[in-house]
Amino acid sequence: MTIQVAKTAGFCFGVRNALELVEKRAAEKNGKTLYTIGPLIHNPDVVARLEGQGVKTVADVSELGAGDEAAIRAHGVGEAVYRRLEEQQVDILDATCPYVKKIHNIVREESLAGCPVIILGNPEHPEVKGIQGWCQNDCFIIQSEEDFGKLPQRKEQEICLVAQTTFNIFKFQKIVEKLREIGYNLRVFPTICKSTHEHQQEAIDLAEQVDVMIVIGGKHSSNTRKLYELCLQRCPKALYIENAQELSPEEIRSMKMEKVGITAGASTPNFIMQEVIRKMSEINTFEELLNESFKEVHS
Ligand code: F3S
């Protein structure tokens, strides 16, 4: 069995940056709690490790009080959350990814100049809610052509269009084309993150060459789920696992695979990937030994 790992697998720049910022600040606080609003990244192993360093997750700003310090995640938050934290005299450690911050600035400026805003993305995702929170004018969130009914009927007015950083680039191009075709006057800002695109493209290329793709990442991580779905479309088999413990040697052996590809979501740390690679190599070695002894017995 050969194992190939995608070069772009794992942490993206924004997630690595947020994690480093939070770990550094937690160490400086010397045991005093640092809060994050929502889990810093969608990976239970990392969240557990952070807890050991004094980083606690709160679900909502209302749980914080004067003198607390709270980190804002790479996904970013809306303007109202900053105001609320300031009112509650909470210190802010801003770990918003600079690429997400750029979208906040675009929608703020464009909407202040009178442009309504269309966001291509998942309305339930915190990044999209955060972007919406910087709009000062009408804001429409759509994911596909089926949502076009939500858009304003007046098409001649200029509309600013941005996308969630992890939005599928091909879908983005198709939707923009379609909107222009039906007459919308768009100012398009291609805000899809390059690292997401490269990550997805490499996973697709690898999935086309192997028998099984293993996709590692938290079950609540939307970018890992997207990677998994893309791999599943290109490869006869794909496994979605959170860590090495979820790999069953029996299941792996029963698949009789020759080529295995491994990739991981943008919130998957290196140590989890290494554990998966190690476990796959051990299963592989065991398999080879088994085959060798089988040959010896029958020769
Ligand atoms: Fe930032 Fe791109 Fe990661 S927007 S959080 S570097 S996926």
Automatic annotation (TrEMBL):
User: Which amino acid positions bind isopentenyl diphosphate, per UniProt?
Assistant: H42, H75, H125, S221, S222, N223, S267
One term of GO molecular function: metal ion binding
GO terms for cellular component: cytoplasm; ribosome
Q: Which residues bind dimethylallyl diphosphate?
A: H42, H75, H125, S221, S222, N223, S267
Which residues does the annotation say bind (2E)-4-hydroxy-3-methylbut-2-enyl diphosphate?
H42, H75, H125, T165, S221, S222, N223, S267
Instruction: Give the UniProt record's GO annotations in the biological process aspect.
Output: dimethylallyl diphosphate biosynthetic process; isopentenyl diphosphate biosynthetic process, methylerythritol 4-phosphate pathway; terpenoid biosynthetic process
Q: Where is the active site?
A: E127
What does the entry list as the binding residues for [4Fe-4S] cluster?
A: C12, C97, C193
Domain of life assignment: Bacteria
Key word Oxidoreductase present in the record? yes
Which keywords, in A-to-Z order, does the entry hold? 4Fe-4S, Iron, Iron-sulfur, Isoprene biosynthesis, Metal-binding, Oxidoreductase, Ribonucleoprotein, Ribosomal protein
The parts of the chain that form a coiled coil are none
Function in brief: Catalyzes the conversion of 1-hydroxy-2-methyl-2-(E)-butenyl 4-diphosphate (HMBPP) into a mixture of isopentenyl diphosphate (IPP) and dimethylallyl diphosphate (DMAPP). Acts in the terminal step of the DOXP/MEP pathway for isoprenoid precursor biosynthesis.
Instruction: Name the protein family.
Output: Belongs to the IspH family.
Q: What is this protein called?
A: 4-hydroxy-3-methylbut-2-enyl diphosphate reductase
Q: Which gene encodes it?
A: ispH
Q: Which residues of the full protein are shown?
A: 1 to 299 of 649
